[in-house]
Amino acid sequence: DTEVTQTPKHLVMGMTNKKSLKCEQHMGHRAMYWYKQKAKKPPELMFVYSYEKLSINESVPSRFSPECPNSSLLNLHLHALQPEDSALYLCASSRLAGRVYNEQFFGPGTRLTVL
Amino acid sequence: AQRVTQPEKLLSVFKGAPVELKCNYSYSGSPELFWYVQYSRQRLQLLLRHISRESIKGFTADLNKGETSFHLKKPFAQEEDSAMYYCALRGGSEKLVFGKGTKLTVNP
């Protein structure tokens, strides 16, 4: 399996809802990432997990809560979101083998709409 | 600070014409540079990385440290090359910084 999968593909939620985004990879990668991509904009890094530990948090509001339960899974828990949080949320993974063969593989994304 | 600049938001060429997508970067150390491509309705995927000096789908990119550039080139553009292209830089951590992207349209 050489893909990053994300569920759900689409999510519509109200500002008082709690929901979760899920990401999975079975490539043995030990780094996993969450990005946010607004329409016609580049992906913006939110979080990085290395060996299941949070290594980078790009000052993301606490209404976004990441979780890495094991080396294959990455979740993003959502609570009390704002309409401006509507975007495509991308998950990615990569090896942690130094500077070579460290490309990031991206999932198809979850398109989130906050009403 | 890591910064990637793609000066052209849109680029339109005719099929068979050469194409060059520009990328300039700012980073004080030794960066890793990448080109990612996003075809319509498809996921973001890696096209090239400077470290491997390979040619993918006829595209090449050379890292020029003197000019801090990593321009993407193809001698003869094809219609299927139409896509969004992002230049990206990785510095000393796992953080990948993307440029704003160039939308390439190859006309028949």
Q: Explain this structure to me?
A:
The complex is a heterodimer of chains A (115) and B (108). Chain A is an all-beta fold. Helix content of chain A is 0%, strand content 56%. In chain A, strands 2, 4, 5, 6, 9, 10 and 11 form a 7-stranded mixed beta sheet that branches. In chain A, strands 1-3-8-7 form a 4-stranded antiparallel beta sheet, with no helix packed on it. The radius of gyration of chain A is 14 Å and the shape is globular. With 108 residues, chain B is an all-beta fold. Chain B contains no helices and 11 strands. In chain B, the strands form 3 sheets. In chain B, strands 2, 5, 6, 9, 10 and 11 form a 6-stranded mixed beta sheet that branches. Chain B is globular. The relative contact order of chain B is 0.35. The A-B interface holds A 31, 33, 40-45, 48, 50, 55-56, 90, 94, 96, 99-100, 102-109 and B 32, 34, 42-46, 49, 51, 86, 90, 93-101.
Compact description:
By secondary structure, chain A is an all-beta fold. Chain A contains no helices and 11 strands. Chain B is mostly beta strands and 108 residues long.
Give a short account of the largest sheet of chain A: 7 strands, mixed
For the record, give the distance between the C-alpha atoms at the N and C termini of chain B, rounded to a whole number: 41 Å
Order of helices and strands of chain A: EEEEEEEEEEE
Secondary-structure element string of chain B: EEEEEEEEEEE
Biggest protein-protein contact in the assembly: A-B, 25 and 20 residues
* Multimeric state: heterodimer
What is the rounded distance between the termini of chain A?
35 Å
The residue ranges of chain A in which pLDDT falls below 50 over 5 or more consecutive positions are none
Strand content of chain B: 35-45%
Number of DSSP helices of chain B? 0
Largest sheet of chain B: 6 strands, mixed
Number of separate strands of chain A: 11
